[in-house]
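User: quick one, fold this
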Amino acid sequence: MVNSKKLELTLEIDQNKAMATSHLGIPALLLSSLFVFFSAALAQNPSEDVEAALKSSEDKAAAIAFFENKIRPLFHDHCVACHGPEKQEGGLRLDTPEGIVLGGDSGAAVLPGAASGSLVVAAVRHVDSLLEMPPAPLPKLSSNQIADIERWIDTGAIMPAVEMEKQSPKEAGQSRRVDKSHWSFQPIHRPALPVLDVAGSQQVSNPIDLFVLNEQVELGIKSNPASHKSDWLRRVTFDLTGLPPTVEEITNFLADQNPDANDRVIERLLASPRYGERWGRFWMDVVRYADSNGLDENIAHGTAWRYRNYIIDSLNADKPYDRFITEQVAGDLLPFETREQRNSQLTATAFLALGPKVLAEVDERKMEMDIVDEQIDTLGKAVLGMTFGCARCHDHKFDPVSTEDYYGLAGVFKSTHTMDSFTKIAKWHENQIASEEEEAELTAKQQEIEELKSRLSQLAADGATEGEKQSLTERIAALQKVLPVLPTVMGVKEGTVQDVPVHVRGNHLVLASKVERRFPDVLTEEDKSITNEGQSGRLELASWMTSPRHPLTARVIANRVWRWHFGRGLVASTDNFGALGERPSHPELLDWLASELIHSGWSLKHLHRLIVGSATYSQSGELNEEMLAKDPENRLLWRYPLRRLEAEAIRDFLLASCGQLDLARGTSLLHVGNREFLFDHTSIDRTKYDSHLRAVYLPVIRNHLYDLFDLFDYSDAATVQGDRGSTVVAPQALFMLNSGLVHEAADGLAKRVLSQAEWSDLQRVEHIVLSLYGRPATASECESMLRFVAQADAEHRAERWAHLCQAAIASNDFLFVR
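Assistant:
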């Protein structure tokens, strides 16, 4: 009798191999048919040794004897040196039946009844170059030895009795690995506010300050006093909008002595459209936003800008963060009331489609699983601060995430339609997002064309002149040429629902048992299998992640918001809350912020109000030698950290300083159409960055970033980046001295102040300092600047003022926020 379970798995593996080799000229269908024939033949004609082991229970001793005489000596001679009592590479022991049953870090080493899916067989066959056993320079096992191992496994992998408490091999191994003791896996509890003797203290504006002061008390840390009003205004304006305060805003705020002056500034900035542009750019770092694919075929993401604008609009509207995440993971599965809402939700799913892809990969199955892997890795880091991608090949080395956890998630994304075609050059899916009016216009034009075609056929039948037919043909061609193209945006939709087998060491050609779609064990309180068998599971996944009971989602985004305000997160490793990540500097504050976010209805603007309204945020950045000695890294937040402006803020500030920044809403600034090549397989990129729109609207080209972005520590657009570096290097200073953009800004600012004929030179100098540094000029600054411009004659006066403006722009006071 054929072992149907074994045959089914064998055929699945062998058909995968047939697909992988079909490009060599062997028809895949014929090859898979041959595998079917030989698999069945082998199952029906076992060797004499195997047949003896299968006959009856009384001959079980013969099967055990086969193991003792053939398999155990083979393992002892060739495997135990690395997988025995003294050494266990990959956590695997092959010297005892118990070790064989348990398997190692990569899962079960032996799958009884399925040799072709067993890790041991893959290793000795040398199927995977990374998994060749015995390792070189030791010789490969003989074909007879490999056949003995395969026959032993295919007939049940019978060994002496093993007591494993009735657990399956993986269950036994998994029970040892699920450790929920790590701090980030604990439920979020709203901590009580610290009780401190701070009655009437100016160092407490809201509960954030209580938590910060509580951490400082033990080490005798004393916070800095409040910063100057002008420093605070410049700081909060750049933080919330990415732009400097105007001269008028600075003047009005310095004159406003009302106790709620700060609060009114915060509300004004949060209500500004500039807020979404600023904070949308931070989220774009996290979701690896780019306007090109990168990698082998760097073609244009010609519709990705719609997702960028979706992010900006969502943040400006203060869309609840749980809804924001749900739409990006499963927007196509959500109900909607209007066409506009449906289109917005479809646009949100570009989150899953934006990743870089090897679009010329010849192995289509590999490409598909690589895309699934990228989606899992991005979702894990971006939303949960977890590195799930490590478990593609083996159980996570540091976090309690198993290969089964990984492939439980992989089933969700394998059941999601991301690509329309995997054939070179592969095509990602685009969702149609036309309005009703656009669809109606297209339908009307198509109907008109069809009517004209019908008339043309009738004319031909009636024997009309060639001139009459030619005229009608030209009219049809003209209409077809201007036929409306309905708008689309890259995104995903539902695919064929399926569970995914474990890929041994991540190899799609070596498959083990299937894993039901589900969520990782370590982050669940009970069984979390996907219950809706008719859907991919993305909607359930989003609901699970955004549950108020989830230990990670609220913590991760609260930490991100804190990091973008202070330059360092409460958890410094913003994208990794696992065992290799940093522990929080203020764990109770982090949990309080996370619970506050949830209780506010997941309002990110609520977090901003709390953070920028705190005394911790408002303190000065002055150095205190005593505090510096106690806390040199400022982990306990005794001063506001000095921070350099990000690349986008520098570029926008330069344009704003000379009145040339265009605050209009951007669309696509690519010079090529959707899916067209940006490089044409050359090293020449003709993308232009001369637009005066805000930097958030400039193209992000993978493999070839805008020079200014690259120079000032822009994020890597290929991966999740929740924490940018901030270097200070010589080329940055050279840019400020030699860049055409800087010269343009300096010339423009000089012309602006010189155009004010009624101003004195002192007033011009004061305006330059106030607009560039956000504070009144000092007496020494005025004196030195006036002395510099006074040295020029009338002919070179304008040039002298331009040089003064450039020197002012190149200073640290321009580039840094205090």
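User: anything notable?
Assistant: The chain has 35 helices and ten strands.
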